[in-house]
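Researcher: Sequence recovery benchmark, item below. Answer with residues only.
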């Protein structure tokens, strides 16, 4: 069966699924879908109107977390979920922490006003949008980054001794932050920043970032250590 990932490449959820497939060594086509202007019949594919969706032959699977667990069962090697029960739960929690906690702030308060809206309007973000994004980063997101820094500790990976869904879930949204001109400061979050440096260089992330950077990454040059 042929695999097709449906959704905008710049979405952290779409990127998570695509990086998951690359870590599995599985080839998949990518069909861009703009969630703000979806094609006719999109609700028949994605009942909630969200991205991504995965087409596997004649079958469609929705929601990035569901898709990744489906792909784990479909292609069990190499494993991207821990075998140990507690480690498995921990990996799912880290995924939920990012998907349900970080992304709902980072998306609408940074990526949308500083990257997407200027692309749609042809006008740069105004001072109010810049200030609101900085406030969200400093007040809302920084405590979450403190948690990630503590959770990662001295380990290479968030859970276990190899890359898992937890790591992909953390690394993907921070690409959107980077495109918005933000990155965790090395002085405050050295372990988290080092983790991102490592994961973004992997074959599962580097080509996806390079694919989107020309359109979405113009603000990345503003980042300083």
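Model:
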């Amino acid at each position: 069966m042929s695999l097709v990932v449906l959704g905008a490449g710049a979405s952290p959820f779409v990127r998570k699924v695509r990086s998951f497939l690359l870590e599995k060594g599985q080839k998949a086509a990518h069909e861009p879908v703009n969630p703000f202007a979806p094609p006719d019949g999109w609700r028949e594919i994605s009942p909630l109107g969200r991205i991504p969706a995965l087409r596997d032959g004649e079958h469609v699977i929705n929601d990035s977390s569901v898709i990744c667990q489906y792909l784990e069962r479909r292609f069990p090697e190499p494993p991207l979920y821990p075998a140990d029960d507690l480690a498995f739960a921990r990996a799912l929690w880290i995924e939920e922490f990012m998907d349900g906690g970080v992304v709902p702030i980072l998306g609408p308060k940074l990526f949308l006003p500083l990257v997407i809206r200027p692309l749609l309007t042809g006008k740069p973000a105004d001072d109010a949008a810049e200030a609101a994004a900085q406030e969200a980063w400093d007040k809302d997101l920084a405590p979450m980054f403190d948690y990630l820094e503590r959770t990662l500790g001295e380990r290479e990976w968030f859970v276990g001794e190899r890359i898992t869904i937890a790591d992909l879930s953390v690394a993907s949204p921070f690409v959107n932050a980077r495109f918005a001109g933000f990155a965790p400061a090395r002085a405050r979050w050295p372990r988290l920043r080092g983790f991102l440096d490592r994961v973004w260089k992997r074959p599962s992330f580097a080509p996806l970032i390079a694919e989107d950077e020309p359109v979405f990454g113009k603000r990345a040059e503003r980042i300083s250590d």
